[in-house]
Amino acid sequence: MYSPTVQYDLCAILMRFRKYQFVITTDVEKMFWQSKIGPRDQDFQRILWRPEPDDALETYRLTIVTYGTTPISFMATNCLISLAEGSKHSDPEASEIIQCNFYMDDLMSGADTVDECSRLQKRISAILASAKLLLRKWCSNSSELLKTQREVHQRSPICFADRC
C-alpha cells in the first residue's frame, strides 16, 4: 500500500534551484519524529524494555508514528503542504516556496539577491516554527546568508514514548 505523492518531483525542484543567483538549503529537524498519534492508537505501538536482563519489564506506548511505516512520509510532507496553504494569504511567496521547493524534509531554494534570500529564510523559518518544525543544517553559496543562521536555537526535548 502506497501513500499519495504530495510534493513535486526532485528533478523539478533541482531545476528550479539552479536558476537562483543565491541559494539556500536546509533540513527540518527531526521531521519524521514529530508526527504524533492519538492516545487510543498508542495502545497498538507498545514497547517492552528493561535496562538490565534481571530487571522487571517496563511497558511504554510509542507516541509518534513509527519511522519506516507507509504513512509517515505522507503525513510529514502533508504537514508542510498544510502550512503552505495556511500561509497562502499572509505570505504567498513563502507559501509557494514551501509547497514547491521541499523534497521530503529538505528545502532547496533561493533568490536573486542576498537580502531577498535572507528575508525568505526568516519568513519560511517563521511559518514552519509556528508548527514547531525547526530548520537546521543551513547551507548556502553566500557566507553572508550563513551568518544569519548561526545564532543559537533553543531546543525543546521531543518525547517518543509515554510510560504505561
Please describe the structure with a list of short key phrases separated by commas or semicolons:
164 residues; alpha+beta; four-stranded antiparallel sheet; three-stranded antiparallel sheet; elongated; Reverse transcriptase domain-containing protein; DNA/RNA_pol_sf
In total, how many beta strands?
7
Quote the average pLDDT: 79
Q: In which range does the helix fraction lie?
A: 25-40%
Strand content: 15-25%
As a whole number of angstroms, the C-alpha radius of gyration is 19 Å
Strand order of the largest sheet: 4-5-1-6
Low-confidence stretches: 151-161
Largest β sheet strand count, sense and barrel closure: 4 strands, antiparallel
Query: Total helix count?
Result: 6
Structural class: alpha+beta
- Shape, principal axes of CA atoms: elongated
Secondary-structure element order, N to C: HEHEEHHEEHEHE
- The N- to C-terminal Cα distance equals 31 Å
Commentary on this structure:
Helices cover 36% and strands 20% of the residues. By secondary structure, the protein is an alpha+beta fold. The strands form two sheets. It has a four-stranded antiparallel beta sheet with strand order 4-5-1-6. A three-stranded antiparallel beta sheet has the order 2-3-7, with no helix packed on it. A hairpin with a 2-residue loop joins strand 4 and strand 5. Helix 3 runs antiparallel to helix 4 (92-100) and helix 4 packs across helix 5 (114-129). The chain is elongated, with a radius of gyration of 19 Å. InterPro entries: DNA/RNA_pol_sf. This is Reverse transcriptase domain-containing protein.
